[in-house]
Design a protein that fits this description.
The chain is α/β, with parallel strands linked by helices. The protein contains 14 helices and 15 strands. It folds into two domains: 133 residues, Aspartate Aminotransferase, domain 1; 251 residues, Type I PLP-dependent aspartate aminotransferase-like (Major domain) (Aspartate Aminotransferase, domain 2, 3-Layer(aba) Sandwich), CATH 3.40.640.10.
Length: 398
């Protein structure tokens, strides 16, 4: 995954991201700023489509389109036929979830950091008689491994875990969950939407059967891109994905079809091919920098921000967990999250706000209605972090 001791050339990364020179950008956990190389790759592909047509462009650029599988495999530590291109992390999650043969009476265990889109799918399964059980957090705020182990038995068919909550800076112990899940033979579905691009991911180390991620956040790819990892060894035990076309399957006889081998069975034919090329370029860009080096810098900047915010009277840093990442959440006495966001926006500092409806189990479980959310990335500077802290000091004084 790279060498964390090799520093990232921040000046070069910022030169590749000219819009970060206009403002301090801390909304990377919502949608990051793509580097010039990603933007240019998408535009070049669209211009080719305009010249020769979509089918001819795909034929001419087939190697660039297929690059997403090699880059994705390197990014996740798997084989190219175990990754599928999707339009989002939610798209990937649903394709994986609906392939697990759940029936009434089956049990699904889930952590408290799940995103709303995932939980809605689980609630729909509960309407069909599937038993959904929430595993409590431990004293550090991460999934309680002992309580998870107590709940695992032969009726548990699926375990769902989000590596990094969108409402919290903690990093869940995904690999420990994988070891416990493997012992009972349940399918293990990991949501790495917020983790990908800011911390290193290795699917064998995690022990997951499925892993989902998005392109637009810390990976710095185009919107409308995502990836699904599907472990080859579990696919034969699953049901056919509910959405199939000529990309994911082959119509072999008038009344028969066969699934594409590997993860390609989860893909659909019609997607943005330009975005696919751009996503591959974003993955390569991150790999060239080194995922361990990215994580080292991101975590360091985030700790600098937390330390500065904790020193301000009236501000609570709300991140939990023993291991943390580049997402920093906090609240400000007397101000709503959107008021803080607007205040900073007027001062050319981009930041996010998260409401309970997006993360009922985490925020609701901590009696929080909303949080201010900053997502630092490797192209941020120490001066920008200190500037954000200074702006919050000014806000508190006024």
């Amino acid at each position: 995954m790279g060498d964390a001791t090799v520093p990232i050339d921040v000046d070069a990364a910022r030169a590749d991201t000219p819009s970060c020179l206009d403002r301090a950008y801390f909304e990377n956990c919502g949608a990051s700023l793509p580097p010039n190389q990603v933007v240019e790759s998408v535009i070049d592909y669209l211009l080719l489509e305009a010249r020769v047509g979509g089918y001819a462009a795909a034929q001419q650029r087939s190697a660039d389109l297929d690059r997403v599988y090699g880059a994705g495999a390197k990014f996740l530590g798997c084989q190219p036929d175990e990754v599928a291109f999707t339009t989002s992390a939610s798209d990937a999650w649903w394709r994986a979830f609906l392939s697990v043969p759940l029936v009434a009476g089956d049990r699904v265990l889930v952590g408290r950091t799940e995103y709303s889109a995932n939980v809605i799918g689980l609630l729909q399964a509960a309407d069909r008689g599937v038993e959904i059980e929430i595993v409590p957090d431990d004293e550090h705020g991460q999934i309680d491994l002992a309580r998870l182990e107590d709940r695992l038995d032969e009726r548990v068919k699926l375990v769902c875990l989000t590596t990094v909550a969108m409402s919290n800076g903690l990093v869940n112990p995904s690999a420990d969950v994988g070891k416990l899940t493997k012992a009972v033979g349940a399918v293990y579905l990991v949501d790495a939407c917020q983790a990908a691009g800011q911390i290193s991911l290795d699917v064998d180390e995690i022990g997951c059967d499925f892993l989902t991620l998005t392109g637009r956040k810390f990976v710095r790819g185009p919107r409308g891109t995502g990836m699904l990892y599907a472990r080859r060894s579990v696919l034969d035990d699953l049901i056919s994905p509910p959405f199939l076309d000529g990309r994911s399957s082959v119509w072999t006889e008038p009344e028969a079809y066969s699934l594409e081998p590997g993860a390609r069975r989860f893909e659909m034919f019609e997607v943005s091919y330009g975005a696919k090329v751009g996503f591959a370029r974003a993955l390569d860009y991150a790999l060239d920098l080194g995922l361990d080096a990215i994580e080292y810098r991101v975590v360091g900047l985030a700790e600098r921000l937390r330390s500065g915010l904790r020193a301000i009277d009236g501000i609570r840093v709300l991140d939990t967990g023993q291991r943390r990442c580049g997402i920093v959440t906090f609240d400000v006495a007397g101000c709503s999250a959107n008021e803080v966001k607007a205040y900073l926006g007027e001062r050319s500092v981009a930041i996010g706000a998260v409401t309970r409806s997006m993360s009922q189990l985490d925020l609701g479980g901590r009696s929080l209605s909303e949080v201010v959310r900053a997502g630092v990335h490797y192209f941020n500077t120490e001066d920008e972090v200190d500037r954000l802290v200074a702006e919050m000091e000014t806000l508190r004084r006024t």
